[in-house]
Each structure stands twice: as structure tokens, then as C-alpha cells.
Write a structure and sequence with these properties.
- The protein has helices at about 15-20, 30-50, 125-140, 145-160, and strands at about 1-5, 55-65, 70, 75-85, 95-100, 100-105, 110-115.
- The protein is of the alpha+beta class and about 160 residues long.
- The chain has two domains: about 1-50 and about 120-160, Orthogonal Bundle (Hypothetical protein yqbg), CATH 1.10.3230; about 55-115, no CATH class.
- The chain has a four-stranded antiparallel beta sheet with strand order 1-2-7-4, with no helix packed on it. The chain has a three-stranded antiparallel beta sheet with strand order 3-6-5, with no helix packed on it.
- A hairpin with a 2-residue loop joins strand 5 (about 95-100) and strand 6.
- Helix 2 (about 30-50) crosses helix 3 (about 125-140) and helix 2 packs across helix 4.
Length: about 160
């Protein structure tokens, strides 16, 4: 299975919102703040094993047997945009499981699934988590430790499912 990012997500927290959260006025660190938002979002996504902002991925499955299942690699799924076979033609599939999403593929050979993952409306809990992680990254620079912040989400993960 190979995953290829087709459309990257926008920042889930704007630089202006993050500056307000950090109580900053000057624009001198805008690039650093933007990078910190992106890094914080990726850290939270990896920890929760869920995509946050809307993003499109193409997943390639090689040598799929007829009437077998493939599991989509990320959650939550906003939409399944395209399911193609070896010759780039649409193929039939049936969604058989919602979490994680599994598709029953009705042909054999390579299968290419393009899907959009993330939240249409990002839960406030995740936005707050991104802001807390970003603040840690910004304020402590090279000494930042996101572990204690990320562990707060272990108990609340069930809320996000």
C-alpha cells in the first residue's frame, strides 16, 4: 500500500488566531508560527491516528484479489472520491465497515482509491490541542516536549470517534 498526498490541508488554526492565543502583536515570527501550527497539527494527527484538516490522498493497493477487502489508511473519511482499477477505469466496490472503513473490491489486480480525510468541521477540542502544542513549540523552541499535552487526549479520544 502506497499513500500519496494529492491535496494538502489548509492550516486548521490561522496565524492570526495563534498570535492572539500567544498574546503576540508583532509580525516578525509569523513564519515560525505557521511552521509551528503545521508541526503541532501533524504531531496531534500522528498521536490520535486521525487526520484533522480536510486533505485528499490517493492510496495504491497492488495485487488485490477479486471480492477481497481493502482498508482505507486514515480516519475520519469525508468522502471516497474515486476507486479505479489497473487501467484507470472505475471499478465496483461496496463499503462494508464504517470504522475503519473497509471496501469490498469486486475485481482483481491493482486498485487506486482517492479519498478525502479529516473533519468537515474541526472539533473545538482538536483546535485547542493544536493551539496548546503550537504554544509549546513556539515558546520553548528546541526544548519543546509535546508528550504531556498529547497524553491529555488519550482519555478524550473516544469523544472524537
Amino acid at each position: 500500500m502506497i499513500n500519496e498526498l494529492i491535496e494538502a490541508p489548509d492550516l486548521c488554526v490561522s496565524v492570526e488566531d495563534m498570535k492572539a492565543y500567544l498574546r503576540l502583536v508583532a509580525d516578525t515570527d509569523d513564519d515560525l508560527i505557521e511552521e509551528s501550527i503545521s508541526t503541532a497539527t501533524q504531531a496531534l494527527e500522528r498521536y490520535l491516528n486521525r487526520k484533522i484538516g480536510s486533505q485528499t490522498w490517493k492510496t495504491s493497493y497492488e495485487a488485490v484479489d477479486k471480492n477481497s477487502t481493502v482498508m482505507l489508511p486514515f480516519d475520519p473519511v469525508i468522502s471516497i472520491d474515486e476507486v479505479l482499477g489497473e487501467e484507470e477505469s472505475e471499478i465496483e466496490y461496496t463499503k462494508i465497515l464504517d470504522l475503519p472503513i473497509k471496501l469490498l473490491i469486486e475485481t482483481d489486480g491493482a486498485v487506486y482509491v482517492t479519498a478525502t480525510y479529516g473533519y468537515s468541521t474541526i472539533p473545538q477540542l482538536l483546535l485547542d490541542g493544536v493551539k496548546m502544542c503550537c504554544a509549546e513549540l513556539y515558546e520553548k523552541r528546541h526544548l519543546a516536549d509535546l508528550g504531556p499535552i498529547l497524553k491529555q487526549f488519550t482519555r478524550q479520544r473516544v469523544v472524537l470517534l
